Write the structure tokens for this entry.
Amino acid sequence: MIAFGCSITAPDVYARCAEPGLRRVAEPDSRIFANAAAGSLFRSYNLLMEMARPLQDLEALVLVHQDAEIVDSDFCGKLRAALTDPDVGVVGCVGAIDVRNIAWWEGSVTWASFTHRYREFGGGEIESVSWRNSGLAAYARTGEVDTLDGFVLALSPWAVRNLRFDEDLGSQIHGYDLDFCLQVREAGHKVMTADFKLVHHHSLKLVTDPEVWINAHMKVADKWEGRMPGIGLPNYGAAAGDWKQRARRAEAEAGASRLERMSVQMQGEARERQLQDELDLMLASTSWKLTEPLRRLNAWRNARRNGSRG
Amino acid sequence: MIAFGCAVTRPDDYDRWAGRGIALVREGDSAVYPNSSAGSIFRAYNLLLDLAGAHEDLEALVLMHQDVEIVDPDFCAKLRAALSDDEVALVGCVGALDARSMAWWEGAVTWASFTHRYYEHGGGELPAFAMHPDRVPPPAYARTGEVDSIDGFMMALSPWAVRNLRFDESLGQRLHGYDYDLCRQARAAGHKVVTADLKVVHHHSLELLADPENWIAAYVALIDKWEQQPVDAEATAPDWRARAVHAEAEAAAARTLRVSLHMQAGARERELQRELDEMRASASWRATAPLRWVAGRLRSRREAGSGG
């Protein structure tokens, strides 16, 4: 039996995103645990694991974020296939190798079969590298990875019964995925990606509280450095043990990134201004103003037509 | 005598901007040195210092980037006023306090009387907070006066600075950090770095950082050079490991925020583009195309007539 769990802080988001996905893929005997969040995500997920643990016929516990929608009707079949190897501890749909810190996306991403759907600016979506099965990048492949993106994590029965999210890390939400994957690997089990398709309904704001994120980054590095190969190494530019050089380099990198951020913002504003000017020019044109009654009439007719259908 | 110097790598840019600005403000006796750039800006500026230093009547040397245009007719008078204090070594139009690295803008900026004119996306400008006080009242923190560092796109050097300071070519850089380093040198020698209300236009791309690796190397070299000095006494015995762990986290956060911003900008652009496309595809817009064509023809004929 495949169980599903979700920690909910915004019930409307769960109802709009995660719930339809769970209903889509749940099997008749599936259990769905929709819990209100209990403090941090670490603690909430531990509670979900405790609830799934006694299930005798448990095949997997799928933990999804409230804003993650599973849209793959063959989800359970694909998950069972990934878990046929008894060494597999956890499965996800996005993962990377050579991961050195909680910014796992700065490692070498091998699979990402989701699309990021946002509601800002009239809405839209940004497809990840393996969202579509056609035209895959040469590096796209499912299989063993260092870590997964935590917005969907499918845990094997072994993982449910033997591991826990580390509440000592003290973060609300960040770093739990890398830490959990490291626990799996340290115990000699595998972390795998599989071709599940998910929609992540998420704002374009990727980090809402940088200070909390930075703290999580440091805590996870402190915990795992020297304990798991690769973790805590710098991305580039300095020897692992040369802390002075690493500090210098990283402080400079942070400064450069902040400057680039300003540049991106200015470019965005300039482009927006250009399009807005074009739009304003069209809106102010005589021909657009002259034809306004026609458009109003058209909108009224459409509304009537739709109303009579409803 | 106020001299002007510029290291030129693109003669067209100099003619269009720096040269035009100098022509606006130079006085009858001003010496103007538009030199071709010899290697790094450090080296090119040192050559300009040598040339200007030979003038006995030198009051100041104004070093400016080729894409900077002085648009302030009172430039020379304002500069003389700023240099009336003998302790002042460097004057700029943008500066910040508590500048701890060559990213001086991450300190507390106190003055910025320039506008950034760009040519991408149809062109436009982004005026800094003290550029148009008549149109946009400057914020409460806006004030000219002493700062830690100024922006090097336009720096005016006192005769003392011209004769006693040099840009540090040993930093091995082509472009970055020369301004912060010279300001540190001036302050280490007991002189002042100040801002003044000098109005300039910086004709620059919106790409603020074309070569991050060089920028990072310059940043590290400058921290190495200056951090041992008493100004940063609190950092003389740092816990390097803690500092590195924090900085690496901060750098990763900054990169992620940059990606986020990029995504937001792209989404906003798509939204506006969608709106434009919908308008252009609408029946009313298409049906009135002939009217706009006729109006456009009439307008061009009218313009051609009035122009000739």
